[in-house]
Amino acid sequence: MAEVDEASKPLLRDLKAVGKKFGHVMYPKKSTTLLRDWDLWGPLLLCVTLALMLQGGSADSKEDGGPQFAEVFVIIWFGSVIITLNSKLLGGTISFFQSLCVLGYCILPLTVAMIVCRLVLLGGTGTASFIVRFIVVVASFGWSTFASTAFLADSQPPNRKALVVYPVFLFYFVISWMIVTFSPSHSDGTTDTGP
Amino acid sequence: MMRQDSNDATEDVSLFDTEDETRRKSKKSKIRHPLACFFHLFFRVSAILVYLLCEILSSSFIACMVTIILLLSCDFWTVKNITGRLLVGLRWWNQVDDDGRSHWIFEARKPSTQGKTASSDSESRIFWLGLVICPLIWVIFFFSALFSFKLKWLAVVIMGVVLQCANLYGYVKCKVGNKSNLKSMATNYFGRQFFRQLGKKDPKAMKDTTMLPL
């Protein structure tokens, strides 16, 4: 049973680190803690959650939303890799994995927005619900972009900040677009695709 | 035991042999960390099994994919943080220094710490076999998914390849870093031998070489 103790110590340490980073994203201040010790557990968790939420309850249906699920994964990981490469090519001082970590953790507001959207969609799919969802997503989009640039822009020379922020903006824009346009109605209609 | 009865000379030898054997066996067969060994193999083998059997087990692609991703990340975490340290005494991690530069650190436990902390043969065999074979299988999966155009599976297969190869690379780096010390020792030794050969005309060196049994 000594092994369990030995295993639980690093597990607790890592979980604490992930929780602390979530806190930093929700309350972004100029701090390098998010950059100092990077990890990719939080981004993985957020990515899986987001992809699952975007499925629209079609997880049990025969006609799989599989490509869609994998698509979310590919967009998030490939997108953050591209942004990171871009910032590296522009001469950023931040290391590859640190940048991936920041970009991944800053999806958190969008994931929260996705949860709110699902809750709102439970209420109804009218114009009012769309307006509420739109406002929530725009707010969290701004939040994500602000948080990530707060962490990332420091690593860049001041005259290139816009060049780095621009793809970050696009990246979160695509994700928020997926969230805004998401409606579970089309996945409910999968029953008529079966034979 | 049979040979022990035959005569005294062989008795001595066989006694010595059996003693040595039992000692080696105790070192070999002892698995001090059964739990670590189990989880080292469990997560990666079951990830592969789920990938292979998902068509049979469940019709839902997403359930399979999430299961595989969970298993792969559990495996990555366990192997990187727990089993490598317990089973073979190696570990690797990344550290960011105050200047913001990241360093990869590959560490091997000093072989001088005998007894409790020393790793046994069977444990290290389990560790290395699991560590090497699973990434190979994932690479095979990658090519089979690529050439059969199962593009939706490609994401999870790439994840498997990346996570498992990262661990493999990390531990090989630890091991090689360990070996390079040995290698430098070996080159030092051979260098000394070489110089000894060169300096044969030197009477002192001559004496040294004559003292060698060959």
From TrEMBL, chain A:
Localization: Golgi apparatus membrane; Membrane
GO BP field: endoplasmic reticulum to Golgi vesicle-mediated transport
Residues covered by the Yip1 domain: 33-178
Entry keyword set: Membrane, Transmembrane, Transmembrane helix
Membrane topology: Multi-pass membrane protein
UniProt xrefs under InterPro entries: Yip1/4-like, Yip1_dom
GO cellular component: Golgi membrane; trans-Golgi network
Residue ranges of the TM segments: 38-57, 69-90, 102-124, 130-152, 164-182
Family to which the UniProt record says this protein belongs: Belongs to the YIP1 family.
Name this polypeptide is given: Protein YIPF
Organism of this sequence: Acipenser ruthenus (Sterlet sturgeon)
From TrEMBL, chain B:
A cellular component term, taken from the record's GO annotations: Golgi membrane
Entry keyword annotation includes Hydrolase: no
Subcellular localization: Membrane
Major localization class: membrane
Keywords associated with the record: Membrane, Transmembrane, Transmembrane helix
Topology of this chain in the membrane: Multi-pass membrane protein
Species assigned in the record: Acipenser ruthenus
Family named by the database record: Belongs to the TVP23 family.
Taxonomic lineage: Eukaryota, Metazoa, Chordata, Craniata, Vertebrata
Protein name: Golgi apparatus membrane protein TVP23 homolog
One of the GO biological process terms: vesicle-mediated transport
Transmembrane segments: 33-53, 59-79, 126-147, 153-172
UniProt keyword Membrane, yes or no: yes
Pfam family, one: DUF846
